[in-house]
Amino acid sequence: MSLSIHRGEVTAIVGDNGAGKSTFLKVLSGEHMPDAGELYFGGTPITLRSTHDAQEQGVETVYQDLALAPDLSVSDNVFLGREIASNGIAGRFGAIDRLAMREATQGVLADLGIRLKSYAAPTRSLSGGERQAVAVARAMKWARHAVLMDEPTAALGARQREMVYAAIRSAARRDLAVLLISHDLPQVLELADAIIVMRHGRNVARMAPGEVTVRDIIDAMLGEKGPR
Amino acid sequence: MATPAADAPDRAPAITEPGVLGRAARTTAFWMFLSLLVLVGAFGTLSTNHVFFNLSNFFTMALNASELVLLAVGMSFLLGAGQLDLSVGSNLTLASVLAARTITALAGTPDQVAAGDYPNLLPAIAAGVVVALVSGGFFGLVNGLLITRLKLTSFLVTLAMTGIGLGTTLVITHGANVPYLPRALQSGFAVNKVGGLVPLPVILSLVIVVVLWFVLARTRFGIHTLAIGSAPAAASRAGIDTDRHVVQLFVLMGLLAGVAAIIDISRFATTNIGGHQTDNLQAIAAAVIGGTSLFGGVASVAGAIVGTLIPVVLGTGLVILRIDSFYQLIVVGVIIIVAVYVDQRNRRRGV
Fold this sequence. Notes:
The complex is a heterodimer of chains A (228) and B (351). By secondary structure, chain A is of the alpha/beta class. Chain A has 9 helices and 8 strands. Chain B has one domain (55-345): ABC transporter involved in vitamin B12 uptake, BtuC (Orthogonal Bundle), CATH 1.10.3470. The interface between A and B is large, with 40 and 39 residues.
C-alpha cells in the first residue's frame, strides 16, 4: 500500500479487524521494520530502526495500550526519556528539574483544555480518559512533524472521547500531520480531512469525508463493489 | 518514600498537590519508620536503666546494619526495576574471599603473615579493596548480561549464580575461611570510631546510601529504573535502552556487595563463608518492609534503611530485655506480611 500524509491534516485509516492498520502504523512509528517498501520523510528516504529513530524525526505515537508507566507521575511520564536536567553540576550527574517538568506538563495539558487534580500523583490514580489525555499530550509535546494514533479512544467514555478528539483537532491546527486509526466512523467523518480504507493489508480507497457516508466507508471496508 | 521539602512547591494555587507530610503518610516507609520509633521507644523504656537508649548501643546497631543496608538499597533498585538478585550473599562471600586472599598474599611472605607481621600492609589492603570491588562488579555484570542477553528471568539466573558463586568460593578455599587477616583492618577501619562514637563503616554506608537516595529520587537514572519496573514496553518506547539499564543495575548491586565484603572482612578480620547464605532474603525483606514493591515501579531507599534497622533493633532489643532473640524471626516475618499486604491493597485501590 502507498499513502502520503500531510501537515495540518488529519488522515484517518479505517478497516475491518485484521486489515493491517496497526501493523502499518507500527512500521511508521519505528516499532516494526518493514520487509519491503520505502519510507519518505519530507521527500527524503529514511529507515526507522526503532521508535527512538522515529522520535528523532519528530514523529510521535499514541498507542492503543497506553504507553504510560502507571507508577510514575504525570510529568515524569510526559518527560520520560527526555527529562529536563537541573541547572549546574547536579544536572551533569543526571539530576532532573521536577518543578520545571511539572509546570511544562501543566501547560501542555492546559493547551488541550485539561486540568488534573495533581501532576505529581502516579498516573495509575487517573481515570482512563485522563491517562489517554496524558499520552496524547506527551505525543503533542514532542512531535515536531507528525502524531500517529492507534485507537486513541477505544477504552473511553463519550465525554472522554471528546477530550481526545479536541486534542487531535488542536494537533492538526498546530500544523502537525495526524494519522488516526479508528473504528468510530461517524467521528472519523467529522474529524478527518482524508479517509484511507484498508482491506487485507492494502489501501483500497481514499475518500474525502465531505463526499461520502458511513455506509460508503463500510462498503469499502467489506469489499462491496461500487457505490449503491 | 520520605520526600524532603524541595519536592513540594506548587505554584498553581488551584491544583492541590499533597504536602510533604500528606504524601509521606501514604508511603509504607513512613509507617514503618513510625513503627521503628515505637520499637526503639519501647525497648528503651523497658530496658534496665534504659541501656537501650545508650548512644553506643545505637551505633553498635548501626554497625550491625552497615553491610545489609547496602544490599537492601541495591535490592530496592533492582526490585523497583522489576528485577531480583538472589546471589548477593554468594557475591559478597566470593568477593571477601578473593580480597582476603589478595591481602594476605601481598602483605608479606607467608611466614611473616602467619606471624602477624605485614610489611606491605597498605598496598595489600588497597589491592584487596580493588579486588573486592572488581569481583563484586564483575559478578553483577555476569548476572545482568545473562538476564538481558539470554532473556532469562533474574530469579533463575541469580539462583543459579548463587550456587556458582558459592561453589567457586568453596573450590578456592576448600571450605576453610581465610586466616591471618591483619588486625589493622579492625583497628583502622571497622572499629575505628569517629569522635569515639561513630564507626567508620557506618559513615561509609551512610554516604553511599545518601548518594543512592539522590540517584533514585532525583535523577534520570532513578526515573528510568522505576519506569522499567512499572512498564518495560513504555520505557523502551520512550527511548530508554532497558537492557543496558538493567545490566547497570546489576553491576551496581555487585559493587555494593563488594563494598559489603570489605566491611565484612574488616569487622571480623576473617572471611565468613557460611554466614551470608540468607543475605539475599534479608535484603529482599528489608526492601519490602520499606515499601519497595515486589512488582516493580515503586522503590524507596529511605524505606530500605528502615527495613534494615527494624530486624536489627528487634534482635538487639530482645537480647537486652533477656527475651529469646529467636522471636525476632517471627516478628520480622509478621512485619513482612503486613508490609506486602499494605502495598498490594494500596495498589489495588490506586487503580
